[in-house]
User: What shape does this take?
Amino acid sequence: MKELIAELEFDIRFSETDAMGVVWHGNYLKYFEDGREAFAKKHGMSYLEIHSHHYFVPIVKSEINHKSPIYYGQRAKIITKMIPSKAAKIIFEYEIINLSTQLISAKGRTIQVFLREKSRELELQFPTFYLDWEKKVGVKK
Amino acid sequence: MKELIAELEFDIRFSETDAMGVVWHGNYLKYFEDGREAFAKKHGMSYLEIHSHHYFVPIVKSEINHKSPIYYGQRAKIITKMIPSKAAKIIFEYEIINLSTQLISAKGRTIQVFLREKSRELELQFPTFYLDWEKKVGVKK
Amino acid sequence: MKELIAELEFDIRFSETDAMGVVWHGNYLKYFEDGREAFAKKHGMSYLEIHSHHYFVPIVKSEINHKSPIYYGQRAKIITKMIPSKAAKIIFEYEIINLSTQLISAKGRTIQVFLREKSRELELQFPTFYLDWEKKVGVKK
Amino acid sequence: MKELIAELEFDIRFSETDAMGVVWHGNYLKYFEDGREAFAKKHGMSYLEIHSHHYFVPIVKSEINHKSPIYYGQRAKIITKMIPSKAAKIIFEYEIINLSTQLISAKGRTIQVFLREKSRELELQFPTFYLDWEKKVGVKK
Assistant: This one.
């Protein structure tokens, strides 16, 4: 089965570091967001496209496992992989690699659900436009 | 004339520091925002009240002058002062004091304007609800 | 057994919201950090005290489960609980309650390890100063 | 005289927006920082190079003038221009253009000074390594 993956290289912002001299741990969730954007640029189904169908897809769970730090001045890469889900959820796994050391810096995972824009009620089934997209890009489950 | 002032004491968040070990300069704009919130708690006219009248008051100009750093673990105070304006603007001046050193850490200033919520058009005159509030709290211009 | 807990009430910063009108999910890690600070204020063993013993305690794992959103203008409470650990780790669990709705907004968990300041090497045993503190405050494991 | 300029195009991060649906005003200082990084990539004299000479160059003054908002999903460009200074200061001016509307979103200015790394004392004269760089890239004053 074809894996749905996107890669993005990026520099560390000085404002993202903390007084230990490394990227503040919470900023990895910004990198995960950048990873999802890169994924949408490559494969489609951006936040704005989802929103045009009157849905929000908020994060309901996120998890970060830190393996090694990233210092200011270092360059990194995030690999974002979609994990097929039978339930009406969008699941991504992430791997951040410190390109200056070639070490894995962090691994992570997020889960998003579908909320109807107006009522903010949870959608228990995948919306049709999303299933169509899954078929088009070849998500197998 | 009575000065309209609010004071707020706060601790530095670790996530607000940078790799130089001090508060990252851009985070002072968060402290200015906290200062405006403290002002609204004391004197009224919060963002939500303004919004209930169908206006936004975005920042159109901000300025920070840094005098001395604040390190993690230090405590600070922000003094927020309203500057009366004849034009339809909300002007605040700020002073941030590092309570651990008693030194002034920064001085600043922001200017906000009134935008109509729906059209996002600039309001060239103070809205009536705002003039009423100015009269009530004693803004002299 | 006595539970080691600290509670902190706080207002949402406007800068912490996103274009969905709610607190951006990544900012919950800032609240968890605020929770740990409140814990240290109540029970001791702050970052600075740990640092004075030449250790860093970076986050190696964090997890957030979002249950309901927090809107700008709402007030929240974070309950931070220390989970006793036999391995040389500091484990906290968090619960964030939206005080305006009385709903749980999020639950989470972080794990920290001990790194020697200079070498940045992992310490596999609890440092003595930390065990002394655990005894003093009554951590049972 | 040759102008020292660098340009950088970038997408808006969702986490940079606020509940008004636009980029939170304080985040423009992150874009200014990105502009300085792009400048250093093109012309040299990065933070790390300055640091290798045992200096910090903290921001002592920053100013932002907001002209029009940037919404999530829009792309922007920052133009960073070095302003020659006779006093021992590094002065940059910035222009941020919303590429989706072709409108200027903001103009700004920052001033940095030279601090000796250890003593954190202000350096009143340009350090020699910096004057050499100015000569090399052709800063005229």
